[in-house]
Amino acid sequence: MSIQEEVLEEVLEQTVDQKNNEIVLYNDDVNTFDHVIDTLIYSCEHTPIQAEQCAFLVHFKGKCIVKTGIYEELVPRCSKLQEAGLSAEII
């Protein structure tokens, strides 16, 4: 086995071991579209178009996955959403 194959194998193992979680944003009757969009841009680093699409999905479907990643990276983002008055959780 060559060194290149060994390194590639190690990288693949690390990638498989990390479980991705998701932040789910839920619909409510309190927050405006503009507030949701602005908060997604700030908290999740969405582009304005991504944030708008998520806001519409939340409105019409009741929920939307707004960010995927490892748990430790999602916690501060989810906290920012919640502090802004949005209903969100990590699953």
Automatic annotation (TrEMBL):
One of its GO terms (biological process) is proteolysis. Residues 18-84 form the Adaptor protein ClpS core domain. One of its GO terms (molecular function) is peptidase activity. Keywords: Hydrolase, Protease. Pfam families: ClpS. InterPro entries: ClpS_core (IPR003769), Ribosomal_bL12_C/ClpS-like (IPR014719). This is ATP-dependent Clp protease adaptor protein ClpS.
